[in-house]
Amino acid sequence: MRGAAYQAFYRLPHGVRRRIVRVIVPKYLVGAVCIVRDAEAADPGRLLLLRQPPGRRWGLPAGLLKKAEAPAVGAARELHEESGVRIDPDDLTPAVPNAIVHPKGWVDTVFMGTVPASSTELVVDGGEVLEAGWFPLDDLPDLTPNTAIVLGVYGIGPRAARQTP
């Protein structure tokens, strides 16, 4: 029975199959996140964080991918747009795991990068991002819930002990 259903499905025109799949399969927004460390900091290191409106908590440089945009390209673009930090997409390392599926219906692709904080100017627009700064890994500020979850997957921050990759 299942085999016959698959055969019938694959006989349909591509556009019809695609519409059927879009109706049946859950849809996810896909974002790109950068975890950027200070290349010059002594252990345990420092992390780049952003304070965005409403401005109470700190988060990672991140945003949604544009249509057909490669995840590393989107991560580098968002990092530059939000903090002024420029890292070539080829210099970003996919985190392991590279994707985190959030229970509320989006997927974050996560990339790691390093820059020397002393020679990297942080530039924010005051609208999308209120403030950017470097924070010691062992003394992070109050994080947004999603940032705490993402960092926890990689063994960083207050949720590190409760997360497993």
Taking pLDDT < 50 over at least 5 consecutive residues as the criterion, the unreliable ranges are none
What global shape is seen?
elongated
Fraction of residues in helix: 25-40%
The N- to C-terminal Cα distance equals 38 Å
Average pLDDT number: 90
Question: What share of residues are in beta strands?
Answer: 25-35%
**What is the overall number of helices?**
4
Order of helices and strands: HHEEEEHEEEH
* Backbone CA Rg: 19 Å
Strand elements, count: 7
Major β-sheet profile: 4 strands, mixed
Structural class label: alpha+beta
Adjacency order of strands in the biggest sheet: 4-1-6-5
Key descriptive features of the protein:
165 residues; alpha+beta; four-stranded mixed beta sheet; 7 strands; elongated
Can you characterise this structure?
This protein has 165 residues and is α+β, with helices and mostly antiparallel strands. The protein has 4 helices and 7 strands. The strands form 2 sheets. It has a 4-stranded mixed beta sheet. β2 and β3 form a beta hairpin. The chain is elongated. It starts with a helix and ends in a 12-residue tail after the last helix. The model has no long low-confidence stretch (mean pLDDT 90).
